[in-house]
Every structure is written in structure tokens, then in C-alpha cells.
Write a structure and sequence with these properties.
With 525 residues, the chain is of the alpha/beta class. The protein has 14 helices and 14 strands. It has five domains: 13-107, Nucleic acid-binding proteins (OB fold (Dihydrolipoamide Acetyltransferase, E2P)); 139-272, Succinyl-CoA synthetase domains (Rossmann fold); 275-305; 397-441; 449-524, no CATH class. The longest helix is centred in the C-terminal third of the chain and has 47 residues, at 400-446.
Length: 525
């Protein structure tokens, strides 16, 4: 039976694989499959995406080609439950079947909300929603930047509201507020406004409004993308978020500096009401004028009160006028007294200025001058005589005989001084020798060697320390005995109750170590 030919048809591997591929594609040409994304790591380097769809019982491989991935409104994320629309096929290279996805959507609002909450927790953990990062809005901006669709009703509502409240310059950055490119365009608009220069052709806005009308969660999903939230958080220009209706909340609302319930409310919060400001200014001006008038009236009353407290002009001048009258009456008498006093002094001086008095003064001055001239001549003669005498004395002392005599006297004094120095040196040396000899005698007297010469001996232990009592010596201890003419080694015996009768203590290992006295030491002692 084994060798008999079989009637079963024979196929190659490729034939079977491609037959299965055609069968699967014909049976499942277009399907919608619900499952959870697993193994998603982002697009491959080729641009294609590979991952799996799974449920609690099975797993299906999935692929999204590069051209389809760029057109998807909703991008796949790990762990998200989705509904994938596409066709089933097989991959002959690995004998597995897969779905080629053409459209992808979340599996209901619950999945989107779960994704939204997860993204919200992630961004909040990074601190993008912290209140201390939020900037205050300017009170009166010069330029307002609006990021929204240029064709919708939102921009018309914002411009109309700004014109009603306070007409300021408005710069609109047109973007798509729905669709697959809306998130990137909104983020680019926010970054573009921040990159404008202060003095550029397009003015840099003082506040930015990001606005969109109401819609479903899917319609507003672009404002929940991370790129939009990060751009809003990084904006250095204060940003107002006005996305959707009052009940709609997106992630950009948490990152913005202020959240407005509607686009119209955002315009109201961006600028104040011009008429209210004018009315407030008029009210402040009126109150200022009234306050100035009250202040002037109060100051005027204070001046009047102070003027009533001051004395009158007549009272102020009465006392000076009385003093003036008193002084003017005393002035004539004072002038007459002063004239009489000056006349008396003039008479005294004029008497001293007579010709005989002047002649006497001149005569006295002449005599004084003659006396001084005479004294000057005598003083000059005396001074000249003293100078001559000094010169004579000096010339006498500088004669050769005088110089030789002086040198002899100096030599005599030097000889006497040298003799005195020699005698003083001998006296000092003799006294020092006497003191040294006395100290040497005292040292010999106090030395223990003089005691050894009288028949005594000095006993030391093995360490060279003197022993002063028998109780300090143990039996068998090494001893060193010093006599006046040398040293010997000994070993101590046992204790002795009574002194020996006839024989002295036997000394073992006796060895004379006669030590020659040091010559220098002998001279010292």
C-alpha cells in the first residue's frame, strides 16, 4: 500500500499559501473588527505601522500602510480599544493572516474619555497645568491675536464683540479647527505668534485667543493633542482658551492662562469696555475737581482763621514807632556829648603836637641814634680783637713743636692703658682659676667614689640601677658590685637569717672588670 501511487493532488508551498490568501480575501473582503491595540510602538522606519488587535480570547495581526496612516484622523495608541475597518489577508512569508486597516476610530466615547483622562494625568504630572505658571492678562492690550478658522462664525463674533467693547488692532492666524491637521496648525499658530518681534511688520500680540465653536468630543479632539497643550503651556504671551460651549472642556483649557466658556466671553475678558472706562474717567475727573475745590476751600478757611489770630498792622507798628521816637529824642543829646568828647581829645593831641614838643622829640631821637652809632663802632673793635686772639691761639697750636708734644702725650696715655688692660686680664684669670679649683674640691668631696675608697661597695641590679635594701633583691637575681678599683658580676643567693660566721658569701661567675679611670675625669676630680 505504501508503494502504490496516490490520487491526492500535489501542491507547492507557494500555491497553497496564495490559494489561502485568495480564499481569505474573497470571504472577508471588507470587515469592521473591534479590539484592543497591543504592541504598538509607533510608525516603522518605512512609515508603515505594525501592531495587533486582541480581545480576551484571540489575537489578530494588523498593519496600516504609510499612505493610509497619514490620512487617519485618529492615531492608534497602545492599550486603546478601537474599531478597525479594512480587509483580511494573509502574509505568505510567515503563514499568518492579518487585517490591512483603512480606517480607525475609537470604540465609543468611553474609550476617548479614558484616553483623555490618561493624557490629562500625564501632562499634569509634568506641571503643565500648575497655577503658578499662569500669567496675568494685560489690562488694555494694544494688539489681540486670534487663532481660529477664518470662515466660521467664531471670528465674526469675536471681532464684533471687540468692536463693541474696545476697538483694538486684531491679528487673525487662520487654522483648521477640526480634522487631522488641526492640532499641528493650532500649535504652529501659537508658536508663530510668540516668535514675532516687537517692531516687526506684523505686530506681536499682547494676548492670544484660541477659539472654536461647539461640537462633539471627536470634533474637539484636536485641542486635546499634546502638541497643542505643550504649545499653549510654553507661550510667553498670555493665552485665553475659548473652545466649545460652556460645558465643553479640553486639555488646552487647563494649560491656558485663562479659560473662557465661549469665544464671545473670551473677547469680553481680553479687553475692557471703552464706554465704562470713559465713564469711570469722567467720574474720577469729577471727583478730582470736587476734591480740589474742597481742598481750596479748607485752605482758604484755614488762612482766614490764622489771619484772625494775628495782631493788626497798627498793633505791630506801635512798639517800633515808640522806640523810634525815644531814640530820635536821645540822638541830639548823644551827638552833642560825642562832639564835646572828641573836642577835648583833639585839644590834648594838639597840645602835644606843638613845635617845641616836636623839636624835643627830634633831639632825643638824634641823641639815641648817636649813642647807637658809637656803641656799634666799639662792638666792632671788640669783635675784631677777639677774632685776632683766636687766630693767634690756633696758629700757635698748629706749630710742629706743639703737634709733636701732643703726639707724645697720646702715646703715653696709650701705653698706660695697655698696661692696665694686661693687669686686669691677669686678675680676671686668677679669680676664675680660684673659683674652678674650689668647685673641683667640692665635687670630689661630694662624689660617691671617695666613699668607695674607704672600703664600701655599690650594688646595682641587672639594669644598672642602685639597690638600697636587701628586700629589693630576689634570689638568683643578677647583680653588679662596684668597688673603688673596678666592678664584678654576681648572682644573689637565698635569704639569710643571720650573718655568716666564718666564710663570706660564695660569689659565682666572678669576673673582675677593672675599669681604668678616665684621664679627663681624673683631671676633673
Amino acid at each position: 500500500m505504501a508503494d502504490s501511487p496516490s490520487n491526492i493532488a500535489e501542491f507547492t508551498v507557494s500555491q497553497v499559501a496564495f490559494a489561502v490568501k485568495r480564499t481569505v480575501e474573497d470571504a472577508f473582503g471588507h470587515v469592521r473588527i473591534r479590539g484592543e491595540i497591543s504592541g504598538y510602538r509607533g510608525p516603522h522606519s518605512s512609515g508603515h505601522c505594525y501592531f495587533s488587535l486582541k480581545d480576551e480570547k484571540a489575537r489578530l495581526e494588523a498593519v496600516i500602510w504609510r499612505g493610509v496612516f497619514g490620512k487617519l484622523k485618529f492615531k492608534p495608541e497602545e492599550g486603546l480599544e478601537v474599531i478597525a475597518t479594512g480587509k483580511l489577508t494573509t502574509y505568505p512569508g510567515s503563514s499568518k493572516y492579518q487585517i490591512v486597516i483603512e480606517h480607525l476610530e475609537p470604540a465609543g466615547v468611553g474609550a476617548l474619555m479614558a484616553l483623555l483622562e490618561e493624557r490629562k494625568r500625564k501632562l499634569a504630572a509634568e506641571g503643565l497645568f500648575d497655577d503658578d505658571r499662569k500669567q496675568p492678562l494685560p489690562f488694555l492690550p494694544r494688539v489681540v491675536g486670534v487663532v481660529t478658522s477664518p470662515t466660521g462664525a467664531v471670528i465674526r463674533d469675536i471681532l464684533h464683540r471687540l468692536d463693541d467693547r474696545f476697538a483694538v488692532r486684531t491679528v487673525v492666524w487662520p487654522v483648521r479647527v477640526q480634522g487631522e491637521t488641526s492640532a499641528a496648525e493650532v500649535a504652529k499658530a501659537i508658536t508663530g505668534f510668540n516668535s514675532l518681534s516687537e517692531d516687526g511688520e506684523i505686530p506681536r500680540p499682547d494676548v492670544i485667543i484660541v477659539a472654536r465653536g461647539g461640537g462633539s468630543l471627536e470634533d474637539l479632539w484636536g485641542f486635546n493633542e499634546e502638541v497643542v497643550v505643550r504649545a499653549a503651556a510654553a507661550s510667553t504671551i498670555p493665552l485665553i482658551s475659548a473652545v466649545g460651549h460652556e460645558t465643553d472642556w479640553t486639555l488646552i483649557d487647563h494649560a491656558a492662562d485663562l479659560r473662557a466658556p465661549t469665544p464671545t466671553a473670551a473677547a469680553e475678558q481680553a479687553v475692557p469696555v471703552r464706554s465704562d472706562l470713559l465713564a469711570n474717567i469722567d467720574d474720577l475727573s469729577r471727583r478730582h475737581r470736587a476734591a480740589v475745590m474742597r481742598l481750596q476751600e479748607n485752605r482758604r478757611n484755614a488762612v482766614h482763621s490764622a489771619s484772625r489770630a494775628l495782631p493788626s498792622l497798627r498793633d505791630l507798628l506801635n512798639f517800633p514807632r515808640q522806640r523810634f521816637d525815644d531814640l530820635s529824642g536821645r540822638l541830639g543829646l548823644a551827638l552833642r556829648s560825642a562832639a564835646a568828647a572828641h573836642r577835648s581829645r583833639f585839644g590834648q593831641v594838639s597840645a602835644r603836637l606843638s613845635l617845641p614838643a616836636l623839636a624835643r622829640v627830634l633831639q632825643g631821637q638824634r641823641q639815641q641814634l648817636e649813642t647807637l652809632v658809637g656803641r656799634q663802632g666799639r662792638a666792632a673793635d671788640v669783635t675784631l680783637g677777639r677774632q685776632r686772639q683766636n687766630y693767634a691761639n690756633l696758629s700757635g697750636r698748629l706749630r710742629p713743636e706743639a703737634l709733636i708734644s701732643g703726639l707724645k702725650q697720646v702715646r703715653t696715655r696709650l701705653d698706660q692703658s695697655s698696661k692696665d688692660l694686661v693687669r686686669l686680664k691677669d686678675d680676671k684669670l686668677l679669680a676664675a682659676n680660684n673659683r674652678f679649683a674650689a668647685a673641683a674640691k667640692l665635687l670630689i668631696t661630694l662624689s660617691y667614689r671617695d666613699v668607695l675608697r674607704r672600703g664600701f661597695a655599690l650594688v646595682r641590679d641587672g639594669g644598672g640601677q642602685p639597690l638600697r635594701s636587701a628586700s629589693a633583691v630576689a634570689g638568683g637575681a643578677a647583680l653588679e658590685i662596684e668597688f673603688h678599683d673596678g666592678r664584678v658580676d654576681a648572682v644573689a643567693g637565698g635569704p639569710v637569717d643571720s650573718p655568716p660566721k666564718a666564710q663570706p658569701t660564695v660569689v659565682t661567675k666572678a669576673k673582675s672588670r677593672t675599669k681604668k679611670p678616665n684621664k679627663d675625669q681624673g683631671q676633673l676630680f
